[in-house]
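Sharing a chain and its predicted structure for anyone who wants a worked example. Both blocks are below, sequence first, tokens second.
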Amino acid sequence: MAHLNLLPWRELRRKELNHQVRNIAIGVAILMAGLVYWAYLFMGGLIEEQHQRNSFLEQQIKKVELELKEVNKVKKKKAQLLARMEVIQKLQSDRTRMVKLFDGLARNLPKGMYLSLFEIKGNKITLKGSADSNGTVSKFMRLIEGSEYFTTPNLNVINIKDDKGLRVSNFTLKFQFTKAKKKPEMEKDSKSGESAAKKKGTR
């Protein structure tokens, strides 16, 4: 039986296996490099997209802030206009009451009475003057008490003698502005209307 030399074949087989292993290793390395590069590109795309979203959100936030500033300006202007309207309405109401006050004083100031001081501080009015008698002062006091625009009258009278020996009543009268009070007739009408409404409701 002849002997066969298998060493050359084994050597070739080993070289071929090494070559295959090297090719597989190179292929795996290339595949891993491709996967890493793809992952890098994918993550870069996500990061860029997030940057774009952040930039869009920042722009929208700036727009909203500008709109809020405009809204605050409008609210501020509105508050200023409302304050001016309140001042104007108050001045108009005070002017009406002042006209009625001066008109009432001019029309109803009793004879024998003279005013030396007319002072207004806010809603408070101070009148000073002199009269020929306490009756004249009382008449003027009834005028003030009967007014629908003035309340809480406070009267102080001092009786003295003048240079001619006549008695003079010096007075100081203080009262306040107020809203128009209902007249007794109006109050009666309103009460009668309320009672009539209640009777109708019970029927």
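Comments welcome. The first strand starts at residue 113 and ends at 121.
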